[in-house]
Amino acid sequence: MKQKYLSIFFLFIFVTSLFSSYLYFVFLQYKVKGEIEQVIKNKTFSFKEIKLFIYNDVKKDIYWYEPNHEFSYQNKMFDVVYIEKKDNVLTNIYAIEDKKETNVIFDFLKTTNNCSSLKFFNYFIYHFILELNDKIYFYHFTVLSKFYLNITFLYKNISLKLIVPPPKVLTVF
Description:
By secondary structure, the chain is an alpha+beta fold.
């Protein structure tokens, strides 16, 4: 009976430690977002901090977390100050780099990557369609790679850009 309660106690401690760092991160991120929103609303930033992004040049590299409010570009978080539109088409984005939020995210990733209990495995499935001499070939391969708890848990809709080595096994349909 003591072993049962002891194992439940240790399980509770393990689960609490596993999720407490994430909850602390969410709290810090919410606090930092509130601070930068106040800076933008009160216009207490210097004009030297504003960066201009020409949308057509950077649209492939930008990931919007909150459309027209917050995005990431080259592993840095930015908050939008002003958006220029011409004929309802986005042309220029004026934004401030949110250094605090970037630091919060990367500190969280650094601490979770050191925890061996948070390691996961992921399958990357690739499909290729190759057309040669009027015949279509379908290629399918799977790459198993180990990764750690990462930014996919921080935002609901996120895409990861990973450089994956070529597959060792290739199966043809």
